[in-house]
Specification:
By secondary structure, the protein is mainly alpha-helical. Helix 3 crosses helix 4 and helix 6 packs across helix 8. Keywords: DNA-binding, Sigma factor, Transcription, Transcription regulation. Belongs to the sigma-70 factor family. ECF subfamily. This is Sigma-70 family RNA polymerase sigma factor.
Amino acid sequence: MSLDQLIHKCKSNDTKAQSELYQLFSSKLFSVSLKYSRSYAEAEDNLQDAFLTIFDKIKQYKNKGSFEGWLKRITINIALQRYRNQKVFDIVNEDALIDDTIEIDDDEVDIDFLLQCIQELPDRYRLVFNLYALDGYSHKEIAQALAITTGTTKSNLARARKLLKEKILDYKKSLNAQSL
């Protein structure tokens, strides 16, 4: 069955088609959910909530644009809802921002370590970092999604980069110490 046929059947509340759609996209959407969650269990909850929303709103999908992109956007929005009303974001002065770049030598930094470092960032930094660096959202889009100012998104991104840079430098130092 084609994806268009599957979507059409899901729009008719066909539970077999919904199950098939879940099987087709759950692993990809789980990895998206995990990026925006504090834990594995929270990511599972967010994924389930995302699929409930997907099945509830699938009639709104007009077969324009990427269906997978539409699913991903819903999944991200579900995860972000947990944070919107929480006081996890700092209000900052935009003039105090410094753009801190991170140089990563692929041979020295393990991707699993890097992903773990991102996962360990405080919520406000992890969310902004993931949206900006991994999913390509603009600061304006992030500010709208999280109900914060663009200055706050820029500040949280800079702080996330700084924390990641510190962790990567510590990791590199430990590798160099082990090789001596």
